[in-house]
Amino acid sequence: MSLSQDFIKGRGAQQNVHNKFDAHSHEFRDDFLNYCAAEGDEVRDSRTSLIDTFPKTIVNKVNSPDVGLNYSLNPYQGCEHGCIYCYARNSHEYWGYSAGLDFEQKILVKQNAVELLEKKLSSKSWQASPIVLSGNTDCYQPIEKKLQITRRLLQTFLKYRHPVGIITKNALVQRDLDLLKELAKDDLVHVNISVTSLAEETRRVLEPRTASIKKRLQTVERLSAEGIPVNVMMAPIIPSINSHEIMPLVKEISERGALSVGYTIVRLNGAIGGIFTDWIKKAMPDRADKVLHQIENIHGGSLNDSRFGTRMKGEGEFATQVAQQFKIAKNKYLKDRKKFSLNCDLHEEFKDGQLKLF
């Protein structure tokens, strides 16, 4: 893997692309760049900034039939992990920012998330249904270590005995093992760990500010050993980058105690097509054209397919081969693992935050 000289290390996106909702566009002019070079100034501010927000609601209804969840909760918008392929990048445009570097550098913090969740769970009209942290951006991204919003959300789920799912690629989830164990006693929690590759070099350039592969596998092993149900997501599979790792990855996570595994195939929707194209030509110039053409072959000649039912798995020979490999891998390594479902039966008794006596 040979990075170009102008590659921005430590970030996924290599530029800020135009926001489709913005009437104005921005570009770096040569005279500005020359001035910065002469003065020894940075062209871009590389620091991460936090922006406090106070939304009116926090639990989102998910209408997509192929995502596999009904409700999601995102304590943060934007994600410092910087995964170049992330479908959530487009959502940053609704806040007035770019789906490129802004998505990784301008993190919106929902300061009233816990209060809104408590209001939701105590509502007389709310019927228990699994709520997933997070359906959009990672609830255990780096700033969570300091702010602990996700931890307080888990305390609220435990208080109301309400089922919760977690999606993350950060080993920080181990910090909350005490809460996860309490929730697991009543089948109230399920953790999805994203492991895109077993190769640390691939992880470092594809997902620059995420936990190392070693730490993620150790997280799968530790949570599983403590009785926390763990599913691993190999998402997304990108041809000629991690598509050769299906069998060894499923074998590895099965040995670590995971109960199941799932996958998606990369799709570059909205602004992500341009962001990914720019990135791969700088990060992997030797194979950029090959990878882009293979992605197009999966989605009928385009980098994206928005059709429900096919957008996550793709079509054609490559998609068929991936599906067959996963079927073989699961039958070989995960065939006898128990099925798991979240418990929705306890919440009604704890709707006021404590067990009803009568």
Automatic annotation (TrEMBL):
The keyword Metal-binding applies. Keywords: Iron, Iron-sulfur, Metal-binding. InterPro entries: Elp3/MiaA/NifB-like_rSAM, MJ0683-like, rSAM, rSAM_sf. Residues 65-302 form the Radical SAM core domain. It holds the Pfam family Radical_SAM. PANTHER family: SLR0285 PROTEIN. This is PA0069 family radical SAM protein. It comes from Salegentibacter chungangensis.
